[in-house]
Amino acid sequence: MRDCRCDVIYNNPQGMYKKSALEFTRTVAMAPYIGSFLFALLSIHLCNSLSYYDYFVPDGVVNTGLVAEGDDFTLNDKEILILSGALHYFRVHPSHWRDTLKKIRAAGMNAVETYVPWNLHEPRQNVYDFGDLGEDMSAFLDVRSFIQMAQEEDLFVILRPGPYICAEWEFGGMPSWLLRDPNMEVRTSYEGFKTPLEVYFNNLLPRLVDLQFTRGGPIIAVQIENEYGNFGYPDVPHDKEYLEAIKDILTANGFSESLYFTSDTPLLAGDSGALPGVLMTANFNTYGEENLSLLKEMQPDRPLMVMEFWTGWFDHWLAPFHVRTPVKGFGEMLELILSHNSSVNMYMFIGGTSFGFMAGANTLDIWPHYTPQTSTYDYDAPLSEAGDYTEKYILAKDIMARYNPLEGVVDHPEQPPQRVKASYPEVAISESLDFATLLSQQNSVETDEGTLSMELLPFNEGNGQSYGYVVYTAHATLTPNSSLQIINHVRDMAQVLVDGVVMTKPYGGLLDVSSFGFWNGQNKSLAIPGQDEVAEVMIMVENLGRVNFGRPHKYHQQKGLWEGPVLIDGIQVDQWIIHSMELKGSQVTNLTGWIPFAGPLETPAMYRGVLHLDGPPQDTFLDMSGWNKGVVFVNGFNLGRYWVVGPPKTLYLPAPFLREGNNQIIAFEQYAPGPAFVFRDTPILG
Ligand SMILES: *[C@@H]1O[C@H](CO)[C@@H](O)[C@H](O)[C@H]1NC(C)=O
Ligand SMILES: *[C@@H]1O[C@H](CO)[C@@H](O)[C@H](O)[C@H]1NC(C)=O
Ligand SMILES: *[C@@H]1O[C@H](CO)[C@@H](O)[C@H](O)[C@H]1NC(C)=O
Ligand SMILES: *[C@@H]1O[C@H](CO)[C@@H](O)[C@H](O)[C@H]1NC(C)=O
Ligand SMILES: *[C@@H]1O[C@H](CO)[C@@H](O)[C@H](O)[C@H]1NC(C)=O
Questions:
Q1: Ligand nearest to the CA of 530
Q2: pLDDT score, position 253
Q3: Atom 8 in ligand 4: which residue has the minimum CA distance?
């Protein structure tokens, strides 16, 4: 029997556990007297179902935070098996945070884990964004609200603030302005890295410090760096002083009340990313037995935790198909982990989306060396990119119910219903805006010292350009025999126009990545025939995503043309006009010069259409399979990249980006537009 008072509290539409979690916050602050009374009301004596907060803080008093000694974790002196799921607040629309947190809690989990992306929170040096900077991603950046909401939904929080987060995220979450320093050594004690990092942490951490469990909030554990054991090895020694420095910054900001940990794949990195006394956790999805026993061997007196149990995997452009990992293997590995009494964080529980230009890239020692990631971050996880339940969700819920020591003690909220997906009627292209008109509205600079990297362009108050495209323009007399040569590489893809005519072809097959205009091509030439007259030569270079894993300090992370000079007919060209085409949402919304659509243009161009909705918007997917390559903006928000090479052919369009009435859809298409904007109610992930 449920006590009626509990029903009133628990059926709060704002959040199943909102009241009790808030009471918890308040009572911890107000000390035991009132606290014990309030919690008595909410406690097991009156209710036969408890929240996790009720269970771990039965009288409103916190004595200790999360402790990792012996075989089991304890929280406030009670044993806890941490059942956590990764949800990146910067990859799920904030209007969907609560629904997603409820889905995580309804699976039986007791914690949510997130990274914190430095590049979004400090887009320009000493300019911070925690939700109100008015930038494209600002709406996603109220990390404090996200953490508080997790508590309202009866979840503890594991915080992984970086500064490096990997995460298949642009530059592993580091801001591109770091790359203006030619001597930059990221993730080391190099002052040029450590000092900005400290300034950033001193800004971020005070905003969250009172959200620790010990102070009435949900944060129970904080990670130091991220997979540091995998970094630089073997050509760069592990910089333990740097790891210690991060720990010291966390401690100076009051975070030693939470449990510190590092995470690595034990059998690949051993303890090379660890610090004495700091809990090591493991990341893997194969050889669980071996990895867990090595972790136990390295750390016999401490409980086991798999910080990243990879529930699926992510996609690279040009791959033959969307990565799916078998449901059965997922279940077996989860069961193996739990049967070792190990706590777990499912990475990811929901992948979400790397909106805009936020997808990162990997490097390979072998061809094709650089492999950029797709905008969809559907991880083949328990929840799909759009938050739908998958077979893995059902299986995980079932397995966790068998291993959760608090099953039957703690309440099981109901699973929220699926969000309806719409397949809206297709939208015709109504207007276009040509390349010259587009360029005329971009920031530009003239130089006579050759091409400059994106990062060194004199824009954004001395921070350079971070993302998007750069267009380099020169004037030269071209003969019927003229050629253009780019010494070394383009970072990452280039299209050439001569007097407004495109001279390069779209990607046509894997071997192309080693030819002119692609990242693997080195010292490649392109014929640019002219008529013995001065011509305008333009090279549009796209940043396809900075590398997020491996050796980001060794890879060529600056974007644009900077590795070597550009030659026309063998002569180095030093005079350039450089346009910075950042394609920020507000810039795209502000564009003027649209004309009625009269057929596809043969150059990069903008295309616009209007989606009219009569009722409340629903989630949908934009099917760009009829187009070639570019990015799509919906009501001024950059949804991400599409590219006919796949594997994905759709872009997830969350309902909160749409509104009743007219919605503006704009595509920047680099080669050839499709016949219309097409919407589907299911994704094509490839
Ligand atoms: C441990 O896990 C990693 C990642 O899944 C895997 O690459 C490695 O091979 C595993 N260890 C062993 C001994 O296989
Ligand atoms: C897991 O914990 C239970 C209960 O404490 C214990 O009986 C069992 O031996 C443990 N299993 C392992 C693999 O450590
Ligand atoms: C064009 O260049 C080729 C070799 O690079 C040369 O053989 C040919 O004579 C040139 N033609 C003209 C018209 O300059
Ligand atoms: C590319 O050209 C540069 C400058 O001439 C040269 O140093 C380099 O070795 C060349 N690389 C290749 C692969 O030809
Ligand atoms: C776009 O236009 C608005 C209103 O005219 C202006 O405030 C804003 O600065 C413009 N943004 C950009 C990036 O040009």
A1: 3
A2: 98
A3: 488
Is the CB–ligand 5 distance for residue 586 below 6 Å?
yes
480 lines ligand 3 (CB under 6 A): yes
Q: Specify burial of residue 561 (Cβ count, 10 A radius: 0-12, 13-18, 19+).
A: buried
Q: Could you tell me the two tokens for 10?
A: 């628990």
Which pLDDT score is estimated for 368?
83
Query: What is the per-residue pLDDT across 339-352, written as a single tens digit (0 to 9) for each?
Result: 999 999 999 999 99
In the prediction, which pLDDT does 232 show? 64
Residues of the chain with CATH 3.20.20.80: 71-385+387-403
As annotated, the residues of the chain forming the CATH 2.60.120.260 domain(s) are 427-432+586-680, 443-581
Distance of CA 88 to the CA centre of its chain: 7
Rounded Cα distance between 430 and 207, Å, is 46
- What distance in Å separates the CA atoms of residue 632 and residue 630, rounded to the nearest whole number? 7
CB atoms inside a 10 Å sphere around CB 596: 8
- CB 341 near ligand 2, within 6 Å: yes
Residue 90 phi/psi, 5-degree rounding, is -90, 5
pLDDT mean over 309-334 = 97
- Rg for the chain, CA atoms, rounded: 26
As given in the structure block, the two tokens for residue 543 are 């940043």
Nearest bound ligand to the CA of residue 592: 5
User: Domain 71-385+387-403 belongs to what architecture?
Assistant: Alpha-Beta Barrel (3.20)
**What are 519-578's pLDDT values in tens digits?**
999 999 999 999 999 999 999 999 999 999 976 556 689 999 999 999 999 999 999 999
User: What pLDDT is attached to residue 234?
Assistant: 61
Active site (annotated) includes residue 257: no
Residue 632 and residue 625: Cα distance in Å, rounded?
13
- Domain 443-581 is found in CATH 2.60.120.260: yes
Distance 342 CA to ligand 2 centre (A): 10
pLDDT digits (tens, 9 = 90+) for 648-668: 999 999 999 999 999 999 999
What is the chain's mean pLDDT, rounded? 92
348: preceding bond cis by omega (within 30 degrees): yes
- Span from the CA of 542 to the centroid of ligand 4 (angstroms): 22
CATH architecture of residue range(s) 427-432+586-680: Sandwich (2.60)
Q: What is the pTM of this model?
A: 0.92
In this structure, which residue's CA is closest to atom 4 in ligand 3? 481
Q: How far is the CA of 340 from the centre of ligand 2 (A)?
A: 7
Residue pLDDT, tens place only, 666-681: 999 999 999 999 999 9
Atom 7 (ligand 3): residue with closest C-alpha?
Answer: 481
- Residue entry with tokens 């969350």: 654
Q: Which two tokens stand for residue 437?
A: 């008109």
Q: Report which ligand 1 atom has the smallest distance to the Cα of 285.
A: 5
Asked if the peptide bond before residue 675 counts as cis, ω within 30 degrees of 0, the response is no
**8 Å CB contact between 616 and 660:** yes
Q: Residue 314 Cα, ligand 5 centroid: separation in angstroms? A: 36
Task: Provide the token pair at 241.
Answer: 């002083």
